[in-house]
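Teaching note: in complex prediction, the entire set of molecules is handled at once rather than each chain in isolation. The prompt given to students was simply: 'Predict the structure of this complex.' The entities are:
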Amino acid sequence: MPQVMDADRMSRALTRIAHEILERNRGLDELALVGIRTRGVPIARRIAKALKEINGDDVPTGALDITLYRDDLMRHPVGPQPLVRRTEIPFSIDDRKIILVDDVLYTGRTIRAALDALIDFGRPRVIQLIALVDRGHRELPIKADYVGKNLPTSLRQSVQVRLQEIDGKDEIVVEGES
Amino acid sequence: MTTRAADLPETVERAHPTPGAAARLRSRHLLGITGLEADEIILILDTAEAMKEIGGRAIKKVPTLRGRTVVNLFFEPSTRTRTSFEIAEKRLSADTLSIATATSSVTKGETLVDTVRNLEAMSPDMIVMRHASSGAPELLSRICRSTIINAGDGMHEHPTQALLDAFTIREHKRRLSGLKVAIVGDLLHSRVLRSNLRLLTTMGAEVWACGPATLMPAGIGRLGATATTSVDEAVEGADVVMLLRIQNERMHGHFIPSVREYFALFGMTPERVRRAKADVIVMHPGPMNRGVEIDSAVADAPYSVILEQVSNGVAVRMAVLYLLAGRDEGESE
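The expected output is the structure of the full assembly:
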């Protein structure tokens, strides 16, 4: 299956996003990264690391599980039930700039759920969105502020992001016919 | 595309923190620990870990069961279990109503089946029930469309209690298999014992059941417990000491000569606890009788996790409600 991004290019894309964050927010004050489980979490940590290398500042990083906020929970009578995992946001999000981090931006429904979940924790000053891949086909009016790669796909294809921390290697592949 | 709406890849959904957990529960009812396999127990405990975090938030509510109706039908008095279920249901945004039999038509002579059929005519999604007769939830599960959750039936089972006990033990010991668990008290009348025994032996723990011979159920060895009337033997080297209430309302049969004699022979005192492992935890499903099955000094000791059990009960019941709600009706077992 065609690989659309390897480890090197992924690393460069994340570094570029880190620079864009600094440029757009004029510094890291009041900024925090929140990764959406599962693969948004390691991506958020890597961006925090890149920001520290560029700027020297530590950016708080959290993990958000959106399972309990999904709109399709009860629509899968067969097959595995979505697993609920812990949300870990060890800082107040009130009046902070929160940057949500996800691996693939597709229908937008995950982000809708993440926004609802986040707002239950407080009132951020602003919420921005990082997607490592934007594959199109939005079903909701949602747009990413920082994109690693825009990847036009068909509905029959699936996009797999693999990360060292979870899958043992860094790559993005597209599976299925276009 | 409408059913696969979320944009997470499939593989992420299957990644699981504990190896060997089930992908979902097999039954759409929770009637007892009997019928649950080890992988389902792990799934419930893992899910409860995530649910516990919600109780620590400023806004302790998620929208998961919005629009679902849960009826709490309690034919026996209960404060802890009923309140715990109600809080769990509300934290998941279900619509809940609680019926206590003292104020219901049961006092006018309506049968259990008629009461439940009438409730069902109002289309609840789940019924959480406690009843003095063993097997009542099972009977209802055969005639009801709703999901039935057993909140304690007679001397049979109390599955959510055993699950919250297991959750509490796992939090402290990081495992269940290989632990020595001493259960001391009124074994004969205890549904908590039966559910715990099944759960703990399924998960590979070694269970010692201790109580007066008159309160020892026949054939307890067949359920996997080592039975003894010596509290010292039961507690020796134990990782967990679990006490059961001496049930005054069931004491018409003169099972023990007196409450004082019971305390002298079986009451859990600090001296007796010293025989257990240094990192022992002491548990009690409540309500406890201080000075009968448990010394006040033990109940309030640092190794007592009795109030943690109560807090964990909410998280475990949220997990059960969530996992059962994901089951479609009609495809049972």
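Point out the following to students. Chain A has four helices and eight strands. Helices of chain A lie at 7-25, 40-55, 109-119, 164-167.
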